[in-house]
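Narrative summary of target 7.
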Amino acid sequence: MSHLAKLMITQMKRQSALSPQEARRTKLITKLEEQLKLAEALAKGERYLVIKPSWSRDADGNRVRVQRERQVRPWWWQEGEGVAMLVRYGARSLELHKGKRAVSIPNAAMLPGAIHTLIAAVRAGELDAAMDAAITETKRKSGKG
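Modeled conformation, tokenized:
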């Protein structure tokens, strides 16, 4: 009996890369999850830090890998009794509804729930048009599109 006959032979299936829209959604969800962690840490009275690897030079001039803190800036601010929040894609805030860019939240304790709702909206594709518009605007202003 042949050695190959002992194995189950199948057609090779490669995992396809993410489509551009899926990649944008993943990027925005990652940033929203970071904002969620920041909101939860601030609610507990803690400081939220992101540690990222970076390169630096030591005293002898050699390149060495170091760990640096990266500041995470909140996308929300106090507005009276409540909180207002923007959703950013890159440096641009997304237009969530015609002419409206901010989400109004009655109190700061409801902020994590609002971020969970935004993450669900991104997964459902509800912000795809807003992300496309932000990318088009960035390209138009930079002269690349």
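The longest strand covers residues 50-57.
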